[in-house]
Amino acid sequence: MSLEDYRRDIEGCSRCSSCKWVPYNQIKSWRFSKNCPSIYRHNFHTYSGSGRMVIGLSLMEGRAELDETVAEMIFRCQLCGACDSACKTYRDDIDISEVLLELRSYCVESGELLVEHMAVIDSLKREGNSLGELKTARGDWARGLDVKDVNSETCDVLFHAGCRYSYDPDARETVRGDIQLLRSAGLDIGVAGVEEACCGGRAYELGYRGEASNYADDVLNRVKSSGAGTLVTACSDCYSHFQYIYPKIGKELPVEVLHVSQVMDRLIDNGRLDFKHELPLSVTYHDPCHLGRKGEPFTGVWTGDKLDRPMSLKRSGRKGIYDAPRNLLYAMPGVELVEMERIREYAWCCGAGGGVLEAFPDFSASTTVERIEEALATGAEALVTACPWCLRVFKDAVDQTSADLEVYDLADLALISAGVAQPASV
Amino acid sequence: MISDEAYKELEEAVGVDNVSRHPAVLDSYAFQPFENHESMPWCPRPVAVALPSTTQEVSEVIKACNRHNLKHKAFSTGWGLWCGPTTDDVVQIDLRRMNRIVEIDEKNMFAVIEPYVCGAQLQAEAMKVGLNTHIIGAGPNCSPLASATSMHGVGHDSIYMSYSARNVLGLEWVMPTGEVTRLGAPGSGKGWFCGDGPGPSLRGTMRGYTGALGGMGVFTRVALKLYNWPGPPEIESTGTVVDVMSEVPDCLRIFGCFFPDKDRLADAYYDIGEAEIGYNCLKVATPAFMMILAPHLFKKLKGTENLRRLLGGTLGQMFLIILAGISREDLDHQVDVLKAIVDEHLGFVLDAKNIPTLGSNLAMNFIRATMPALVFRIGGSFSTALGRNDSLDTQLAWGEAIAEIKRGYAKKEMIIDDMGDNPYFVPYENNTWAHCEVVYPYDHRSEKHLAGSSAINMDFIINAIESCMEPMFGVVPSARKVLSPLTSNFNRWQRKLSEALDPDQTSDKGFYTDEAEFDFTNVPPERVERLQKLVEDLTWTELGPPE
Predict the structure, then answer these.
(1) Is the pLDDT reported for residue A380 higher than 70?
(2) Which member of A336, B163, B253, B469 lies 3.0 to 4.6 Å from B464 by CB, making a disulfide possible if both were Cys?
(3) For A50, which DSSP code?
(4) For residue B442, what is the DSSP state?
């Protein structure tokens, strides 16, 4: 696909600005009624979903030229997908998220690159991760765990940790706990350790499609050789890429793909996991974009007139993973869930996605602070999420702003409630 | 092009981060496809875009424009061709940063807001204190300030809250010269409670009938009347639009009222107006309503004549009405009155209380007016046939006349068949008056549809003239040129006002007073001749209307 393939989507925009707002029936206040971090920060219409589509049209028609400034306009976006979900409350025939991805690819193919993104890609090529860490340390997180090595053994369930969980010291314990919990529930789990590499999704989002394809091949081969019937990941980014980007680029994984919260939810349902430890805590839950609206599975390409596209092929954001994480919170004794105003497919982004954290840290941070303020407005004691990228930026923002708010990974609370981890930190 | 000197002055006015002349930024403002019947969705590209955050900054921007012989054009939420420039020397003033609800005065029931507050935001905040705001039919994405000051503005709630211009209680206005003035009570510094003063009255000065559509300076603050909201501070809902499910508050009852024919429907409307009941009311074109909810299904079914007759005929003369009571007794009384009226006119009611999922879906969608933009689902775009305001009977006749024209174009596949007259039809002023915009879906990416648009609009105009109807949407320069001489030369008066308040003509007046020749390329010659004959016969003279 190319930008030109989405010309009809772009020309279909009516400029109603629905892409800038929480779906109107869900606007509960003046304060938290916006949905797009980019235009919230930069204000010109250009920085909205609609505005970026117009950039595409302007470039295609030769009215504007791609230069450094235009590339920056294109990349100052977390690709959170809120514009797309909001637009689709009214439109069946416009896929803004796809246009945004094509714009990035167009930039890369035209040589308009961001230095910070090139560093990410360089790290991917050299070390197999997006964080600039050493490949040799990739498997350290699993050291000492009683878990199968899929490089030499087969297993039922392949666990993919992802870059952030593998390297971030604040997140490693979470995935170690995940493994312990899933094993205690009787699952036959394996990990790739040092051989695990990035899922490649971040490369795809930055517009580097060749690299994304290579990493998808790597995961695909590992899944096949592991003998697993299920791929589980704790990382929402990886989950989205496995579910959507991989099949879209012809690398569909031949196994069931689950986020760890879904696995835990199932284990509770069939009685293999029990939350028995009291956690007296009021929490609010942040839907990660990549687990929520961008966690919808790929359902195929519609080549006809999108006005006639079956609803089953429309990526509305509603079929993301919203209930499983909440079910876990509801199942934890003592935990009270207080919802923020912007949730589910209209949740506000954490700020980390789309290469913004790497290239525009100030913009990323202001987006994060906005979410922290929304969490504080609920009166909850803690902000819980199910993505290591969200977790990282939330923790940093709370540290920097001294906000009176704890930040937890959902899995950490699950581990404590299940008795797998000690409740010292809660 | 804008000179470096002029651009520097804009930077000084709003800050360097809040002004741009980059072509890609400018193009995002030149893209205005809605109600744009050209083959490309562009309007003239502005020479710069400025984002002021205060009234003072707006004033500085306008003064800078005046010093450099540039025009200015402001918009709030920015939906529609009329929001964009009409010439190539315009600075677009995007009021997005002026987004504050300055005040909600619970006791005196009004709100003071800035231009970029949208209807949904104001309603959400008003409901928290037991009040509600008028939301226009275009939807809650639109700016109540823009509608109240610069356009007409009816909505589902007009039966209770009338139309936008009726609700203005005070105004802050940056004139085309850059001077700041306040009209209504705020003009005397006595608060924002009354449009007639103490202080200069805003009636007739702020706007004419339709509004200047951005052609007369910039409105920066407005006080809007708020209305009683007997419901909870927030209507608990899940879902977004089509799938929304709400907890219907006990103070509301929702009814579909069906009548055997148009006359009985009209009589019921009048009686409801006399009884002064109703909180929200919309005439629903049943088949088109079904089509926006399930476009795929109904595209397949629209050839089914029996279904067409059932939905468009038997179930065609209906409106949906929401009653709101301040007490159980009040609500029961209204329900009794409604049922008696419907009964008297041989209709029947469908009580949403007996179909909970229907009521649950409609409550929020109607109170917040979130459904109209679903018309996009049919063809990707839509337009309306000369939205207008007149006595309710006349409006019903207009709806029928337009439906006939629509059917002809749908048959030729020059618009999309939505199975019927699809009016945006709301009663107001005690239901003696009504607004009717007959919607027709089309795809603006289709050359055939675009070719049809000028022809169908010509037919609408001719029909309006032949039926002695007042075509409100004569805002397009070519339509204005034709219609003004037949309608008391309204544009001559608008020009006088414009020249008085904007002596250097610095506001972009394309949608206010400019006139242009019609492009008759796609209009059949006999229709052109018919129009010319009508113009010849009906043009007003200096003495008044023709004999």
Answers:
(1) yes
(2) B469
(3) H
(4) E
Quick one: pLDDT at residue B37? 79
Provide the β-strand partners of residue B92.
B49, B73
| Assigned CATH class of A124-269 | alpha beta
Mean pLDDT (whole number) for A228-245:
98
- Asked if the structure places residue B547 within a domain, the reply is no
Please classify residue B541 by burial: count the beta carbons closer than 10 Å to its beta carbon, then call 0-12 exposed, 13-18 middle and 19+ buried: exposed
Report the pLDDT value the prediction gives residue B18, as an integer from 0 to 100: 98
- Do B361 and B446 fall within a single domain? no
Tell me whether B133 touches chain A (CB under 8 Å): no
What does the block give as tokens for A295? 């966690």
Decide if B544 is inside a domain: no
Which DSSP category does B541 fall into? B
Q: A-contacting residues of B 359-378, CB under 8 Å?
A: 364-365, 368, 370, 373-374, 376-378
Q: How high is the pLDDT of residue B453?
A: 82
DSSP alpha helices (H): ranges in A241-341? 246-248, 260-269, 323-331
User: What is the Cα B34 distance to its own chain's centre?
Assistant: 13
**How far apart are alpha carbons B222 and B216 in whole angstroms?**
15
Number of domains in chain B: 4
* Cross-chain residue pair A29–B373, CB shorter than 8 Å: no
- Assess whether B304 and B211 both reside in one domain: no
- Sequence-distant (≥ 6) Cβ neighbours of residue A294 within 8 angstroms: A80, A81, A97, A240, A244, A317, A320
**Residue given tokens 């608060």 in the structure block:** B191
CB-nearest partner of A30 from B27, B78, B124: B124
Over the stretch B453-504, which tens digit does the pLDDT of each residue have? 878 888 888 888 887 776 656 678 988 998 899 988 989 999 999 999 999 9
Q: Tell me, what's the pLDDT at B169?
A: 96
How does DSSP assign B444-513, residue by residue?
A: TT-HHHHHHHHHHHHHHHHHHHHTT---TTTTSHHHHHHHGGGTTTHHHHHHHHHHHH-TT--B--TTTT
Tokens of B72: 């200015």
* Percent of chain A topping pLDDT 90: 97
Q: Report pLDDT for B471.
A: 60
Cβ of A43 within 8 Å of Cβ of B243? The answer is no
Is B120 an 8 Å CB contact of chain A? yes
Phi, psi of A276 (to 5 degrees): -115, -15
A63/B94 Cβ within 8 A: no
A193 phi and psi, to 5 degrees? 55, -130
Here the CATH number for the domain that contains residue B257 is 3.30.70.3450
The DSSP element (H or E) to which A287 belongs, if any, is none
Using alpha carbons, select from B440, B431, B426, B436 the residue that is nearest to residue B395: B436
Question: What are the residue ranges in chain B where pLDDT is below 70?
Answer: 386-387, 470-474
Q: Which residue has the tokens 């002809």?
A: B408
The domain locations on chain A are: 3-113+274-425, 124-269
Q: Which domain holds residue B435?
A: 380-538
Give the tokens for residue B31.
């893209």
Place of tokens 């002023």: B429
Contact (Cβ atoms closer than 8 angstroms) between residue A367 and residue A37: yes
Based on the fold, state whether residues B394 and B368 are members of the same structural domain.
Answer: no
**CA-based nearest residue in chain B for residue A306:** B380
Same domain as B206, residue B184: yes
Contacts of A15 in chain B (CB under 8 A): 31-34, 78-79
